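Researcher: Quick test of sequence recovery. Tokens follow.
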């Protein structure tokens, strides 16, 4: 990888705890996050990576936040250690910000409990303040208390957020320009990437009979054909995702397409706000 000189000028030894990576879509944000993850192993025994982009996820299926823990002393990416997921249930943080920030906090807490002393958090590309991008990023700053916020800008699109943070002592701001090699992707390319991520996730999925009246169902048992859901453990982490493919609601069961082999360990069913074709893994309105 051709590393921009500005990346090499960052004092990596000064970074610890949560490092929040902020930038609009297609600015090289995720590429920098991966670079930083590997560099942090020069100064930390165990580093964690949180993929916080529910729409263009890299370490898990869209609609989820994924924590990947590196093994002690192993800077390989993707991290080889255990993974934990929180289900947001949508491919955009817009109108889903509360479950996103709750999931972020839960994953960071888990990373610390597992012994990670540095945590790279790659945020979603939503930065437009008119759509809540600023409020979301400030909520993450206030909740996660990052030691540093890395702001990656093409021009000055993040100044509304970074300027007050530079004047505050609550965190350190590291300013970077968008990577020259970063290429803009149109909406159709981004949709196809999401579908490919879902296809990869569900490639070994099988139908599983789910007697939903035996489990807690959040927010309510409104099952519908093609609805995406998560099967969660007692801590609220997603064991697996599933797509409703049939069933008999009156009899208290549905069939879900899922990579989970059995219901062992399942404590609750969490219904998302997304309908997904089990054949094409696209939203119905996007065609097949």
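Model:
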């Amino acid at each position: 990888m051709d590393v921009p000189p500005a990346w090499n000028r960052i004092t990596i030894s000064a970074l610890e705890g949560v490092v929040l990576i902020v930038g609009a879509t297609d600015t090289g944000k995720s590429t920098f996050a991966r670079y930083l993850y590997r560099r942090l192993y020069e100064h930390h025994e165990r580093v964690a990576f949180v993929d916080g982009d529910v729409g263009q996820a890299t370490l898990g299926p869209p609609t989820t936040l994924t924590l990947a823990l590196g093994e002690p002393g192993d800077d390989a990416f993707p991290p080889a250690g255990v993974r934990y997921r929180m289900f947001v249930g949508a491919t955009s943080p817009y109108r889903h910000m509360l479950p996103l920030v709750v999931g972020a906090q839960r994953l960071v807490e888990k990373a610390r409990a597992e012994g990670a002393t540095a945590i790279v958090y790659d945020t979603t590309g939503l930065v437009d303040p008119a759509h809540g991008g600023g409020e979301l990023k400030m909520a993450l700053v206030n909740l996660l208390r990052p030691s540093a916020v890395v702001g990656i800008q093409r021009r000055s699109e993040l100044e509304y957020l970074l300027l007050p943070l530079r004047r505050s002592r609550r965190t350190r701001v590291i300013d970077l320009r968008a990577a020259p090699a970063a290429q803009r992707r149109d909406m159709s390319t981004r949709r196809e990437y999401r579908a490919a991520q879902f296809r990869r996730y569900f490639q070994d999925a099988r139908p599983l009979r789910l007697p939903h009246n035996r489990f807690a169902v959040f927010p309510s048992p409104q099952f519908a054909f093609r609805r995406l859901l998560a099967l969660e453990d007692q801590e609220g982490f997603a064991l697996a995702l599933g797509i409703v493919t049939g069933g008999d609601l009156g009899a208290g069961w549905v069939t879900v397409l899922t990579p989970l082999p059995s219901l062992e360990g399942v404590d609750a069913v969490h219904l998302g706000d997304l309908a997904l074709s089990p054949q094409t893994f696209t939203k119905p309105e996007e065609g097949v």
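The chain has two domains: 15-177, 204-286.
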